[in-house]
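Data deposition worksheet. Section B asks for the primary sequence of the deposited chain exactly as it was used as input, without tags or linkers unless they were present during the calculation. Section C holds the resulting structure in token form. Section D is free text for depositor observations; keep each observation to a single sentence. Incomplete worksheets are returned to the depositor.
Section A, Depositor: J.P.
Section B:
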Amino acid sequence: MNITIPPGYKGLVALDKEIHKGKGVVTSRRHAFAAGLTGVYVLAAEFVQAARHYPVVFAQDQATGEFLPIAVTGLNQDENLFVGDDGEWEKDAYVPAYVRRWPFFGVRLTGEEAKNGNILICVDETGLEASSQSVFDSSGNPSGDFQPTQTLISEMEGARPATEHLCQTVKELGLLEPFEAHAFPKSGQEMRLRGMFRINENKLNELQGKDVKRLMKSGELSRIYAHLMSLDNFKFLMDRAAARRKGSRLDS
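Section C:
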């Protein structure tokens, strides 16, 4: 099976009760894997929570042309302003499910591969270590420590179709437009983030009643407005970047 390695992961192998016996999730620098991620995938169900802390935008997969929602976490390439030097996520910020799930990843199976279940749980082995809080218990079953993560993986896969539907709907309705975010720090050069898409609010307001009802009935209209409101968070990203640069100068 060919599995595309998701951003931040070093590799993926199927989680195995024999191979990974006695292994648990690393306890230090838990979120260091995401330190170089300028954006993190979010589900449609996360829009309202994520919009409180991040700009939530749409990015286009160049291979397929499909769109996916992203929480922007940095202003420069390979920068995540929410992961500290200690490898932990900012305590006061919402932690996306994508981050909470690591080092695990759910792969949806179809056809003959799905005979023993439709989700294959894989793992980035760099995120495991010998631990008393192991993924499997002495009988080889998922442990109590792992069950919340197992539930999260299942919930993420269950929420993925709604996220794909939202992206497909705004694409079909012609609501997406490319845009650039400009940051003007007090010192240094202007920073530009490219390759992002947002909902065109004028086009949204011009939708026919039947399309508006469709968005309301599906719950997608509220998520669209959460996305639009979240775009103001670019200024908070700039403030966070400036604070980090100032801290770096003081430490040097």
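Section D:
The mean pLDDT is 90.
The radius of gyration is 20 Å.
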